[in-house]
Amino acid sequence: MVPGRRFRAYTAKHLDQLTTRAGLGAEDRLAVRAVATVLPFRVNEYVIESLIDWDAAPDDPIYRLVFPQPDMLPAADVNWIGSLLAGGAPEDEVRDAAHAVRTRLNPHPAGQLALNIPDLGDEPLPGVQHKYPETVLIFPRQGQTCHAYCTYCFRWAQFVDEPDLKIATDDMARVSAYLRQHPEVTSVLITGGDPMIMSAAVLRRYIEPLLDPGLTHIESVRIGTKSLGYWPQRFVTDPDADDTLQLFEQVIATGKNLAVMSHFSHPRELESSLLADAVRRIHSTGAVIRTQAPLIRSINDDAETWARMWRTQVRMGMVPYYMFVERDTGPQGYFAVPLARGYQIFRDAYAGVSGLCRTVRGPSMSATPGKVCVDGIVDIAGEKAFALHMIQARNPDLVGKPFYARFDPAAIWLSDLEPAFSTRFPFEPYPDEFPGLWEEEALVS
Ligand code: SF4
Questions:
Q1: With a 6 A CB cut-off, is 226 part of the ligand 1 pocket?
Q2: pLDDT of residue 341
Q3: With CB atoms 3.0 to 4.6 Å apart as the test, which of 102, 214, 231, 393 could cross-link to 398 if both were Cys?
Q4: Confidence check: pLDDT of 445 > 60
């Protein structure tokens, strides 16, 4: 495609045409439409024409990254919604059915709605999450879409037509007031969706207040984005690309760190010359690019894929940061890689790269008590166990301290694990301090 082309999104109404191009038969195409009625679908011309290998579709990893799969949800649900669509059921009936399926998919994992929303005065501060003392997350109202949607997205509830499931704010005056009252906060993450979907002018409305002299305790501003993978034009040829970079320079000029937390799922996303230009231009502002992604079955679940990603990222000046475990929401059962296998993939990839790539941590579960990293599989006094530690924790005392769980080759999430060499996990003795924590966990980012 021509690099300077304007952004154009493809949505569910284009699905039949696109899945025909992938060679799907009528039954599978209907099942894909049924899945896309429950979970969000959106892709763009760059992903379609420059990233997907259509000769390999529907097995191509980038195709699988953005196109719903016919068997991603329970067969009974897919058949139910498929039959409504095929029978021309009224819109209301289809919407109610989709809503019923969504409510079974744990739309807000890790207690995001119940546990992480702070208060300002006596009122909650919606669109903000404060889970760890030093970090606050802001969800800008205009940033709750992406240039394309990942099939495995743990924030899928942000993109479906259900206002009650959304987290968002546009009230930076209240957010700033909250931050002024919390000098322990040193880092703000602007997240979504994808904040880089916003124009430079709108992004500025969220970033500039953080540069206020009253907020010198904010040392770093992070922007969580997949735009480098899905739409690198955002930093190169889009009409406001230069304004965006100027905004980045403005952040750096205040002495703060600006980190572009870039989500790359597969090495192919790193191959385009547009991406190379975008990375160079971002680096020229003084911003740092850190990279992260979840480990996903059938998209990136092998060590060579990760080693290649990390090596390429380091060659381009980016900093590998996280390998995540697929979170406990949406189609987790479909995409999850067991923790034991995930650890092996991480270790094999880590062992095959230079020390410069070993800034990466993982595999890490963003769970209700914090970020739990699988450090290894050990044999202690004849008992096989997972060695774990918390990279981040609601209770900072627990950060960095090792603990163990009984080995279970099928476990895919923290809630599947049982403590080993102890009667409880270290984060369990605090139910009074964090009411509801274990009820949330049992439901099961
Ligand atoms: S880019 Fe991030 S927020 Fe957007 S769909 Fe993918 S995982 Fe979800």
A1: yes
A2: 98
A3: 393
A4: no
CB of residue 149 inside a 6 A radius of ligand 1: yes
User: Where residue 400 falls among pLDDT bands split at 50, 70, 90?
Assistant: very high
146 in contact with ligand 1, CB cutoff 6 A? yes
Q: Which amino acid is at 329?
A: T
Segment 421-436, tens digit of pLDDT:
999 999 986 555 554 4
Ligand 1 pocket: which of 112, 146, 300, 332 to mutate (most atoms <8 Å of CB)?
146
**Calpha distance 127→118 (Å, rounded):** 10
Residue nearest (by alpha carbon) to ligand 1 atom 5: 149
Pocket probe mutation, ligand 1, options 44, 150, 160, 222, max atoms within 8 Å of Cβ: 150
**Probe residue for ligand 1, chosen from 51, 108, 263, 264 as the CB with the greatest number of ligand atoms within 8 Å:** 263
Pairing of strands 220-225, 257-263: parallel
Per-residue H/E/C for the chain = CCCCCCCCEECHHHHHHHHHHCCCCHHHHHHHHHHHHHCCCCEEHHHHHHHCCCCCCCCCHHHHHHCCCCCCCCHHHHHHHHHHHHCCCCHHHHHHHHHHHHHCCCCCCCCCCCCCCCEECCEECCCEEEEECCEEEECEHHHCCCCCCCCCCCCHHHCCCCHHHCCCECCHHHHHHHHHCCCCCCEEEECCCCHHHCCHHHHHHHHHHHHCHHHCCCCEEEEEECHHHHCHHHHCCCCCHHHHHHHHHHHHHCCCEEEEEEECCCHHHHCCHHHHHHHHHHHHCCCEEEEEEEECCCCCCCHHHHHHHHHHHHHCCCEEEEEEECCCCCCHHHHCCCHHHHHHHHHHHHHCCCHHHCCCEEEEEECCCEEEEEEEEEEECCEEEEEEEEEEECCHHHECCEEEEECCCCCCCHHHCCECCCCCCCCCCCCCCCCCHHHHHHHCC
CB 153 near ligand 1, within 6 Å = yes
Taking the centre of ligand 1 as the mean of its atom positions, its distance from the CA of residue 330, in whole angstroms, is 13
pLDDT tens for each residue of 157-167: 878 776 666 78
Which residue has 């009667």 as its token pair? 423
- Average pLDDT of span 250-277: 98
Neighbours of 386 (CB within 10 A): 22
pLDDT at 113 over 90: no
- Would you state the pLDDT for residue 207? 98
CB 150 near ligand 1, within 6 Å? yes
